[in-house]
Amino acid sequence: MYSIGIDVGGTNLKAGLVDESGAILAVERIPLGVFPGAEKFAEILADLAKAVMEQGGVTKEDISYVGAGIPGAVSGGTVLYTANIPMKNVPLAELFRQHLDLPLLLGNDADCAAVGEWSCGVGKGTKHFIVVTLGTGVGGGLILNEKLYTGAGCGGEIGHIVICEGGAPCNCGRKGCWEAYASATGLIRLTKEAMAERPESALHAIAAEHGGVEGRTAFLAAEAGDETALAVCADYANYLASGLVSLINMLHPQTVALGGGVAAAPEHLLLEPVRKLVAEQCYARHTDQVPAIVRAELGNDAGIIGAAMLGRAI
Amino acid sequence: MYSIGIDVGGTNLKAGLVDESGAILAVERIPLGVFPGAEKFAEILADLAKAVMEQGGVTKEDISYVGAGIPGAVSGGTVLYTANIPMKNVPLAELFRQHLDLPLLLGNDADCAAVGEWSCGVGKGTKHFIVVTLGTGVGGGLILNEKLYTGAGCGGEIGHIVICEGGAPCNCGRKGCWEAYASATGLIRLTKEAMAERPESALHAIAAEHGGVEGRTAFLAAEAGDETALAVCADYANYLASGLVSLINMLHPQTVALGGGVAAAPEHLLLEPVRKLVAEQCYARHTDQVPAIVRAELGNDAGIIGAAMLGRAI
Predict the structure, then answer these.
(1) Residue A86: its pLDDT value, please?
(2) What is the rounded CA–CA span in Å between residue A144 and residue A311?
(3) Domain identity same for A47 and A161
(4) CB A52 within 8 A of CB A4
(5) Are residues B86 and B151 in the same domain?
(6) Is residue A129 located within the same domain as residue A189?
(7) How confident is the model at residue B33 (pLDDT cuts 50, 70, 90)?
(8) Of A66-80, B120-134, B203-217, minimum mean pLDDT range
(9) Do A220 and A99 sit in the same domain of this protein?
(10) pTM value surpassing 0.80
């Protein structure tokens, strides 16, 4: 049997036909454009699913279910709300079934990435596993007791634990959320602050060369030996580790996987110092069970694979 | 059928015979004194269990199991380590069985309090439930998907999420842990800092009257209308809410129960402002599913009842 995973982005929809090992056998992708309403949206999802079936040479009878990763909160077959698409309390699975007679399973998009890494990536075989995605924001997903955990619906908003009470403003309305420090956006802010203080730093030349300050700017300058950039990288690793230790003290997983653009930073500037800080600080050091901190490995495919594997985790 | 719950404190052991409704039918209590070694400790636990059976007029055949709440980390029938008692990797259930042929279930003491409130107190009927104990430290327990959650062994250390990076030192070795602000110890520190700044505050007279600054000093002075004390209470509520929102954003329970001495503070000075802050800040406000914030209700019995109910939660 196969399943189909659909990754619902703010601007694009990507669907994949996935086999039981997690291999993607066919992919279709379309722009979402202006949101056409929930009814039409359900039809588009069904059409995408039909398109990947056709491309993969399989029929409805070969498919267990379709999974969709939604940028928002879901409950059962209902979309509770979405951040960038206007849907609230939409019975999407029911609407979908009017166009394609298959179960539609729903997951939050970050949760789907966690399910993907857990079922087919670096989290395979673990009982308790956390993915932390370091992108524009800090997202993530929790696999607890071999199931996706969302609590009463909105669990897993791991970017929104405050690490600096009264600190940098966060999009969620609070101040000092982990996301405001450990996201690429937070890293760019730290980099710009350091540049303003240190006009002699190589950060300026490297930023100019790449058309502006990016998440990787500090890592590039640090690799060239710039002291200011090295300090920015150390600060960033410290903020990242701070939230990780809080997560680990609360949930004690076997493995934490870091994904998103920033996780691609050189190992000795990010993962190594973070591992050291976590090992020094987390409670699990008392029982010699410090979780492994690793890079996520499925990259952009995590969303499709995770959506297609939702049936194993919910 | 009955079960027996044993609450292992740093200085005392309390055992209770508990029926299926959670009622305590008999209690025995002895001082622990100098730790006599793991073998002897297992024998003392067995003797205590026998004593409550005798007092309650029941026999071994009427008992499903004995549960024990341990101040430390456990895994299955093994004590991994304890904070104030010298045990490391002790197969306590096995040692216990040499003296009394009943299963010994182990739980962390704070986890047992959560199990107690979930099975017989304010958490009854919830699927996801968190107890936060505001005492010398900040402890707690997580009931997720109707089971006690401990992750790979050390999960649920909810006092050790950092809310003020680089802030007040914590006993765990980190700086700025929630425990350093939201515990009674943290509240006493906030009170003393305010007193040092405000010699005219009524806090001084109230502290003198009660023989020193306590957790309740700020609440007593605030009730008498003292401005400085009102500000301390507001600051404390803010720190408490900060960690609660982080917990809720991560785990989204239906109910959070506050226990420990500080939770007894007047409702309008603590629970009401905390509920307001949580409702304004947590992610679940987007789906109108803000968790209930309530007072724990089992008090000192929570440990015995929870240990006796461990079989329902693990």
Answers:
(1) 87
(2) 15
(3) no
(4) yes
(5) no
(6) yes
(7) confident
(8) A66-80
(9) no
(10) yes
Question: Are A283 and B173 inside 8 Å of each other by CB?
Answer: no
When CB atoms are compared, the residue of A153, A280, A287 closest to B252 is A153
Instruction: Looking at the structure, tell me whether residues A134 and A56 fall in a common domain.
Output: no
CA gap B182, B187 in Å, rounded: 7
Distance from CA of B178 to the nearest CA of A (A): 10
For residues A93 and B135, give the distance between their C-alpha atoms in angstroms, rounded to a whole number: 47
Q: What does the pLDDT look like over A123-148, one tens digit per residue?
A: 999 999 999 999 989 999 999 999 99
What's the total number of domains in chain B? 2
CB burial readout A200-216, b (16+ within 10 A) else e: ebbbbebbeeeeebbbb
Residue type present at position A93: A
Range of the domain at A278: 125-297
Residue B273: per-residue pLDDT: 98
What is the pLDDT averaged over residues A202-231? 97
- φ and ψ at A105, to 5 degrees? -95, 140
Nearest CA in chain B to A141: B250
Please report the pLDDT score of residue A58 as a whole number.
98
CB distance A157–B283 less than 8 Å? yes
Q: Scanning the structure block, which residue is given the tokens 């849907």? A: A87
Residue A253 sits at the chain B interface (C-beta within 8 Å): yes
Q: How many residues does chain B have?
A: 314
For the cut 90, the answer to whether the pLDDT of residue B184 exceeds it is yes
Do B96 and B10 lie in one domain? The reply is: yes
pLDDT at A172 exceeding the cut of 90: no
Report yes or no on A302 lying in a domain.
Answer: no
Distance from C-alpha of A278 to C-alpha of A244, rounded to nearest angstrom: 7
* CATH at B248: 3.30.420.40
- Looking at CA atoms only, how far is residue B166 from chain A in angstroms? 9
pLDDT at B10: 73
A140 → chain B, closest CA residue: B250
Question: Within this chain, do residues B143 and B172 fall inside the same structural domain, yes or no?
Answer: yes
| pLDDT of B73 above 90 | no
